Amino acid sequence: MSVYKGLREDYIRTKALIDTHKKQQEELLEQVLFLSHRTDVLDKTCSVLRGLIDVEMVANITTAETLLTEGLQHIFDDLNLSVRADTNIQRGKVSVDFVTVQEHTTGVVTEGSSIDVYGGSVATVQSTLLRIVVLTRRNLRPLLLLDESLSAVAERYVPRVGNFLRTLSEKLGLDILVVTHNPTLVEQADVAYRIKKVKDSATFTKIGRSQ
Asked: How buried is residue 81: exposed, middle or buried, by Cβ count under 10 Å (0-12/13-18/19+)?
């Protein structure tokens, strides 16, 4: 009887251990299935987000290309310039290079970065226009500050720069505050002030476009 009783106790303990392990196995399987489902959902979510980012990026790039090309053609009307965006993806990171393209009257086409190929005038205008793209696409406060930012633009193009900025300001509802010593830009302003330093302060005098 004692042997039978011992075997019965061993059986009960063994069965209890088997039941415990079986229950743990079932719980682990449920966790695996849950995590597998969650991983699948996260993968699909990431795919959707990547798609949305790609769509926004393409839209931003297209907007930038269009605005840059229109701006360069309006301002540098004698150079026949346009802008192309080259997109590169490495390790999930996207980089964009804006290439300035010029088609000469001879049919020859040259291209490169604006600063290297075309100098300060084109590079300065492109930089200003890109800032406008960022302001408009990101729904930031419609205020552009230019503190002597256009000083590198050749004098013969300054009137067209002022005209183009004025047009953008009206179309986009964009306020542009320009600090400049160039009277040609002042001519394009809705409101202009002359600033004079007086001892440790400054005076602001409202001036007309012809002053």
From this structure: buried
